[in-house]
Amino acid sequence: MILTESFYRRENVVQIAKELLGKLLVTNFDGERTSGIIVETEAYAGVSDKASHAFGARRTKRTEVMYASGGIAYVYLCYGIHHLFNVVTNDKDVPHAVLIRAVEPVTGLDTMLHRRKKEVLLPALTAGPGAMSEALGIKTTHSGISLLSKEIFIEHTDTVIGESDIVCGPRVGVSYAQEDALLPYRFYIRGNRFVSRPKTG
DNA sequence: CAAACGATTTTCT
DNA sequence: GAAAATCGTTTGG
Predict the structure, then answer these.
(1) CB-contacted nucleotides of strand B (7 Å)
(2) pTM higher than the cut 0.85
C-alpha cells in the first residue's frame, strides 16, 4: 500500500521522519526496479532551522520545490558529486523536508551493485545519502517528481518498527548550523547494519 | 562575472 | 585519521 498525500501533508516533520523508518522506498528508472527499507532519516524544519536550505524563508530556483505541497521529491547536488534525496512534507509554502540517509536493499540488488560499481553486497552499498541515491538511480533531474508516481514512491511494509527500536540523535554534517546542529532530528533503526556511520568508519 | 561553499564518499597513509 | 574529488547554487563586486 502506497503512502498518500495525507501522510506527507502533515505538520510535524520530525514525526514524519520517524514514521518513515521501516517503509519501502521504490524506484522504477530505466526499466529497472530497485527498492529498499528506509533505516535512517533526518528532519529539516524549514524557515526556523538553520541547517535547512530554506532557513529564513530563503527561496531560490533550487529550493523552490520545497515550497510545494508535500508528497514530492527534493533532490540536490552536494559537493559536486552526490545527489541527496529528500521527501517534501507539509502544505504549500511551508518548506519542510525529510532527508533519506540510508536504506536496506530489497529489490534489484544486481542493478544497485552495477550502479555503484560494486561486486558484493556490503552496507556501504546504500549506507549514506549519496550512496543510497546512486544505488536507487536518483539524480537531481528527479527533483520535483511526485512520490505518487510510478517512477518513485514509498509504501507500507510488514516490518513494524517499535519505539524502542528507534534511536534519535543530532544530524550529520550540519555543524555550521550552530545551535540547531544539536537538535535530535536524526532517526535510525537500532542495530541495523545499513545505517551510515558519521565520522569514524 | 568571479569566487566560495557544501545535508559526502572514497582512497591513501 | 586526513585529504582529495568535483560542480551547481549562491553570494558578492
Answers:
(1) 6-11
(2) yes
